[in-house]
Amino acid sequence: MSSGPRVPLDRTALGRTLTRIANAGSRAALGGLSGRPACSVRRIGFTGAPGAGKSTLMRCLAAASLARGQRVGVLAVDPSSPYSHGAILGDRIRMGEVASHPEFFFRSLASRSAHDGLADNLADILCAMESHDFDELLVETVGVGQAELGVRALVDCVVLVLMPESGDQVQAMKAGIIEIADVLVVNKADLPGAGLIAAEVKDVLGRRRGDAKLWVPPVILASQHDAASHQAVAQAIEAHFAWRRGRNDETARQRARAAYHARSLLNQRIEELLAELPPATFDLPPREVHRELVARLAADFDASVSTHTQEA
């Protein structure tokens, strides 16, 4: 939590800033970058299948943090249509009673060209929010399943939320997102089958081999009206942060975020270039399409070098 008096949170101004960043193309995003983020704000990612209750869990955890005098920001990624490229963005009602708290900020983001459960320019958006004296930033992924691995690079703690009906999903996740989760929550634990899923997840985690010093993800049963279960989730997250503080891996974390950032901007630019290519280009062999894309990327680089030379 910040020491000393805070500057009041101007949600309107922050919202305008995030809109500008979210709408920026890859070239504009690169032009607006200035150094590496400080990585000083706690970032917690929430992922899992749609309907698992991620938003409800986040609301409960945010309410507890706000009650402790912390400033909390929530970014929720919603899927974009592959045809219209639009998204049905959630609004502040998803956060219930905490939405009106003066130290709370909520923003929905369209995934756009991102294919990893996140959103275009999310790395830049998180960096922008770090300058507004937040104590915690909560990130909710699209919820597409085991493909959502990008969140690992952008947050400090990954919470995977499952449901009692997740049996088949657990099987599919064994070689995917379950491997990157730091805390696993079987939500809606008042429904039949919750204990069985928790036992199955623990069995999967128990089969892992590796260094005994590695973090062992706890598996927690939670439900919407069980405040004690939400406190257990918060305590598990705290325990993970305490474990991280003893690892002294700040350099590796910075590099992982920088690598993800570079990769996401490159992927975004490739999507833009693909959209710019004349339709007849795709009548050519894949090698020729690739050659054209590489040529256009090279032209981007040449133009960037020329601009920096003129500015110097």
Overview of this structure, please?
- This protein has ten helices and seven strands.
- It has helices at 11-22, 26-31, 54-67, 122-130, 151-154, 167-173, 194-206, 227-245, 250-276, 286-311; strands at residues 42-47, 72-78, 104-110, 136-140, 157-162, 183-186, 219-221.
- With 312 residues, the protein is of the alpha/beta class.
- Helix 1 runs antiparallel to helix 4 (122-130) and helix 3 packs across helix 8.
- It folds into two domains: 11-248, 3-Layer(aba) Sandwich (Rossmann fold); 253-311, no CATH class.
- The longest helix has 27 residues, at 250-276.
Number of helices: 10
Order of helices and strands: HHEHEEHEHEHEHEHHH
Strand content: 5-15%
CATH level 4 superfamily of the largest domain: P-loop containing nucleotide triphosphate hydrolases
Shape: globular
Parts with pLDDT < 50 across at least 5 consecutive residues = 81-87
Protein structure class:
alpha/beta
Number of strands: 7
Summarize the main sheet. 7 strands, parallel
Oligomeric state of this protein: single chain
Mean pLDDT: 81
| Overall structural domain count | 2
- CATH class call of the largest domain: Alpha Beta
Work out the helicity level. Answer: 40-55%
Q: Kindly, what is the distance between the CA atoms of the first and last residues, rounded to a whole number of angstroms?
A: 41 Å
Radius of gyration: 21 Å
- CATH topology description of the largest domain: Rossmann fold
Strand order of the largest sheet: 3-2-4-1-5-6-7
CATH architect. name of the largest domain? 3-Layer(aba) Sandwich
